[in-house]
Description:
Order of helices and strands of chain A: HHHHHHHHHHHHH
Number of helices of chain B: 14
Shape of chain A: globular
Structural class of chain A: mainly alpha
CATH architecture of chain B: Orthogonal Bundle
Number of strands of chain A: 0
Largest sheet of chain A: none
Number of strands of chain B: 0
Structural class of chain B: mainly alpha
Strand content of chain A: under 5%
CATH superfamily of chain B: MetI-like
Helix content of chain B: over 70%
CATH topology of the largest domain in chain A: MetI-like fold
Oligomer: heterodimer
CATH class of the largest domain in chain A: Mainly Alpha
Distance between the termini of chain A: 22 Å
Distance between the termini of chain B: 30 Å
Number of domains of chain A: 3
CATH superfamily of the largest domain in chain A: MetI-like
CATH class of chain B: Mainly Alpha
CATH architecture of the largest domain in chain A: Orthogonal Bundle
Amino acid sequence: MTQTMTTPVEPEDALTQPFPAVGRRPGVKRRNKNDRIPLWLSVIAVVVAVYFVIPTLFVIPMSFSEARTFVFPPVGFTLDLYRDFFTPSPNASTSWIGSLGNSVLVALLTTIVATTLGTAAALGLDRLTGRLGGFARTLLMLPLVAPSIVIAVDVYMMFLQWRLVGTLQGYVLAHSVIALPFVLVSVTAALSSFDRGLLRAAAALGASPTRAFITVTMPLISRGILTGAIFAFVTSFDEVVVALFIRSPQFQTLPVLMYNSVTAEIDPTLSAASSLIVVVVTMVFLLPQIFGFVRRHRKAKK
Amino acid sequence: MTNGKPARTSQANWLFLVPALALLAVILLIPLFVSFWLSISSPTFTLDNYISLFTDGITMTVLLRTAYTALIVTVVAFVIGYPYAYVMTRVGPGMRGLLLTIVLIPFWTSSLARNFGWLIILQDGGVLQQIAAFFGIDDFVLYGTTPGVIVAMSQVMLPFMVLPLFSALGGIDRRLLLAAQGLGSSPVKAFWKIYWPLSRAGVVSGLILVYTLSLGFYVTPALVGSRQQSQISQLLGQRMTELLDFAGGGALGTLILVITLLLVAWANRFGGSYTALGAVAGRASPTPAIIEGARER
Lengths: 302, 297
């Protein structure tokens, strides 16, 4: 908390966020009785937190059940569902591990495409201040605003004609469009705190624009690009609505198989798949935090 | 920012945009346009496809049900999301990190896993019925009903309410409240006269965001709801894939898209030009960096 006060505050920040968002003023005790969080509010917060977490809590025990239905509580203890999940099936439309492979492949390719195009677009838009630039930005945000079901049915209709239904290319193209706004937003955010003066300094020191970009801009916005890339991966990996419509029996992603194992034919392997995803996605989400923590820890040691 | 860029640079900037815009045009804009085109030109140039949306007796019923469901979901998410976001702005950094993680983990976790969790809870013979039976209520059914969809969807939508609210409430200067109380106003009055008006912009963008998302939501209604109580997104999906009615589906899709875009544009008027879009991308603001920031504080 004292850090906050010692670090120089930008004048803008000082205007928009005095200290309340940051915390209490150092040295001043919370004397005012009226400014405590009332008990009933804390109770509500706890109840809402439970509501947030509850559905996930039911999924994990189910994955160890011996029963072949989704009825809670689970019966017995077995790892059969996990074995089923990892056993390859020759039938592509029921192979869990195969669908997982497809999902990872689609998500990786989507990440590459969306991160490259999105970063380039953010760099271009950053310098375009005109009306046309604003319009381009709005257009690029459209995949985020448009309901996914509308995107899904229209893309499906076109992909039928273009013979892209149930193909790897089709999945990657569709998911890249959906992931684009996330990359755009995170790179734009990184660029907004980027000091242009540094580029002028680099130029004054004789660096070519390309060199200045690689040695100055890139390292400073790499955080934003990485965030965008993670977003793109998770968005694609978790995307279900468009994936449902452009699936084929030969090629489908994991969320599609999960969806079908409830709606088409009940397949309890779903609970193992759900649990695995909960764990893996949580890891993907936590890793940058853990890395950041380790780095700071090391710095502190030095 | 220097504005006196030579024209050459400006063109180079547009070149950076070309790949993204090309992808967007081919994969999204063309399909949206073709769908719209079919809806007005098939079988002949006519507005029949749009007129029949209003006269076929099904579409309007389902659309009204969807609008109603989305409204309740939005209200529920707001009523429980506002206090939660408020508490998030008031607690210490460690606790704030925990509360934020609780919002974010389910948000980043597979939406199907969450909906599957709700299925286990709500289904016939599920957890909720077992609890109800324990209290002697035997005919407690939520699975396949609109209330069931509302219970599950409110939870799925909650992060979209909490995150914009959190950033809005975090920017309010609490000294104003203390000043009001110092001048003799009661805490309740200080809240209504000062805190609430200051938070209104964030509230509006959160409300519109959750409402628009709920209108077009597909997965939860399809898994927890039923065909008899279907939502507009299910109707659109059926029309396109089962009936292969691309003209009628195109009209319905265009209608949903236009309603959504109008709502987003309307929300934009409340909080500056890009608040609503930014709020939709409020998904994007809870980046790991921000969490770390919250921790460091």
